[in-house]
Design a protein that fits this description.
It contains eight helices and eleven strands. It is α/β, with parallel strands linked by helices.
């Protein structure tokens, strides 16, 4: 079974999600708050975290910050419907995806599978390193280098950058990026792609000191150019 750590103060919802996810092949450990998040990840050998952002005491944003200081484990946030500030904050801190509450257990299971497929199921026999100008993306090790310097990327950031590299030189729509990079259809008003790619651009620029080779094509999508 796939080990999931669910951090949510809503015990009734957690029991519902745990029961459904158990039927879908997930083993769920529930924490009512995130103070022991790092210990629980190690103890349960969790493969993915589902984290509610709106919690009393220690907030979900702080929990996510603590996780990212120590671990690259994939994290899916549960956010209040329409609360864009928390979503963007979480994505900026390295969350892999988000789902608005109330959510259906079926959609949550689908999102978890999509994240895990991206991280573990995209390897192919010809997955040699990809090179576009000074950018090298190694699909075997899921690592990237820009002008010879390692590029620190989250899982979602790597997947979106990989998608742009595979389509280098052409405009890739946000719909394509969502389907190929995030493993799900693009939802209305979904800002995840824009936030993730903004973070990638900032990391590229921090290394080179000049503009990143990812261009925004207004109304169409994004394009990676050789640089």
């Amino acid at each position: 079974m796939i080990s999931v750590l669910l951090i949510d103060d809503d015990t009734a919802l957690a029991e519902l999600l745990a029961e459904f996810l158990g039927q879908e092949g997930f083993g769920v450990t529930h924490l009512a708050d995130g103070r022991r998040c790092l210990e629980a990840i190690a103890e349960t050998r969790a493969e993915i975290v589902v984290l509610d952002i709106m919690m009393p005491g220690i907030s979900g944003i702080e929990v996510l910050r603590r996780i990212r200081r120590e671990s690259s484990i994939p994290v899916l946030m549960l956010t209040a419907r329409g609360d864009e500030v928390d979503r963007i904050s979480g994505l900026d801190l390295g969350a892999d995806d988000y789902l608005a509450k109330p959510c259906s257990p079926g959609e949550l299971a689908a999102r978890l599978r999509a994240i895990l497929r991206r991280l573990g199921g995209r390897m192919t026999a010809d997955a040699a390193p990809l090179t576009v100008g000074s950018l090298i993306v190694d699909r075997q090790t899921r690592s990237a280098h820009w002008r010879g310097v390692p590029l620190p990327l989250t899982g979602a950031e790597f997947d979106l950058l990989e998608t742009l590299v595979l389509n280098a030189g052409r405009v890739v729509s946000r719909q394509e990026l969502s389907e190929q990079g995030l493993g799900r259809p693009l939802a209305p008003y979904d800002r995840a792609i824009d936030v993730h790619l903004s973070a990638v651009r900032q990391k590229l620029a921090a290394i080179s000191g000049d503009a990143a080779p990812i261009m925004t094509v207004r109304g169409k999508g994004y394009q990676l150019v050789a640089a």
